[in-house]
Amino acid sequence: MKVNKWIGAHLAAIFMLLCSVVSFGQGQQGVSLDKIIARVDNHYILSSELEDMYNQYKAEGRGAPEKCQLLESLIINKMLLAKAEIDSVTVEDKEVDGELNAKMNYMVQRFGSEKNIVEAYGKSIENLKGELRQQVKEQKIVEKMQRTISGNVKITPADVRKFFNSIPKDSLPYIPSEVEVGHIVKKGTVTREQKEKLRQQLQELKQRAEKGEDFAMLAQIYSEDLGSAKVGGDLGFAKRGQMVPEFEGAALGLKPGEMSNVIESQFGFHLIKLIETRGAEYHARHILLRPDYNKGTDMTDATRALDSLRALIKTDSLKFAKAALDNSDDKETAESGGLIQDRSTGQARLTLDASMDPALYFAIDTMKVGDLSMPVSYRLEDGSSAMRILWYKSKSEPHTANLHDDYEKLAQIVLSNKRNNALEEWFKKAQGDVYISIEPEYKNCKVLGLAANADDI
């Protein structure tokens, strides 16, 4: 059995494609008959999964791999899941819920509202979340298994030099222009009218609960905390310091069974009901309502703050990295001095081509290296409306790969190759620990070097 380079290089990306919120739920429309085409222990692969995966590649304008390659990647993911069960590798619900919330928030941002999502997919939000949650959980388990298998792989500068010297000079890759761009983001301020509207809505829900309606049911219906809403707003036991101060202070000021006043935090507005306390831990439910960032956001304060920071940076009274760390509302980039990272590589160098975020591409197209933009509109991943200033830090010229300028890229290739080798060795050993069966119609694929056998499917 051989795990080819295509599989090794794209294993994580393929599974992310399976969990893509863009394709999620759509592939099942129009499927009258489905069938099992492969089995790995208790995990099954349906023909619709393979078709959805193939069609998703084409829909995104990417060259779709052959279906045999896609089937192999699906089976490998199922092998990782099956071995995770055997080895008792699990992920915490909190980690799954966090990823699920991020994906659902992205969907709301992309479609404009939950109502639009329901109309697009023909399913309730709860049903969509239920389907996506299992996919997210499997994704997290696969990622954890991959880290377990190849997490200890290391490389040295000698490894990188050896790899570079092994490439024929006339075969060295051409590296396109790359840029480093930083940004400082400031969210808009929710208007007073919007805040008052949310407070009033939660106050009405509190009155309904006081008159006898079930708090958990109200949370299921109205809460916009997508992770906890499905369990009646139940947040489980939390340790002191785990929740934001506003939430924790209000919760700890309650007696079991009591409800709080409406509380505002960075996440929105909460109505909290304390269930019980246990030593240094407390157990609460909540209903969360969030502002409509499309309609109820004032950008005046955000723009003024960024104008002030821009003036200080331009006069060299404040370094951009320090300003981003202390002031940016995009916490993911603030920790790296505001530099925007390529999520596929984790590096702060972005390829200057069509793969770049269009808004960013067209913004820096009118800038020179070293320029600092005026405040421009921006939308955070959670849907929040914001403003940002951009810093065009650097740009590399297109060139043939060399050891000096492209060491990091070469090192990533060497590390990836070593990890792929570790995965391949793992698959050779793991293949005997799990039962794999493939439908005869895919016998020409020779997936993982196995002969197709449908006797046990």
UniProtKB/TrEMBL annotation:
Residues 176-276, 279-376 form the PpiC domain. It comes from the Bacteria. Residues 118-145, 188-215 form a coiled coil. Residues 1-25 form the signal peptide. One of its GO terms (molecular function) is peptidyl-prolyl cis-trans isomerase activity. The keyword Cytoplasm does not apply. InterPro entries: OMP_Chaperone_SurA (IPR050280), PPIase_dom_sf (IPR046357), PPIase_PpiC (IPR000297), PPIase_PpiC_CS (IPR023058), Trigger_fact/SurA_dom_sf (IPR027304). This is PpiC-type peptidyl-prolyl cis-trans isomerase. The keyword Signal applies. Keywords: Coiled coil, Isomerase, Rotamase, Signal. The lineage of its organism: Bacteria, Pseudomonadati, Bacteroidota, Cytophagia, Cytophagales. It holds the Pfam family Rotamase.
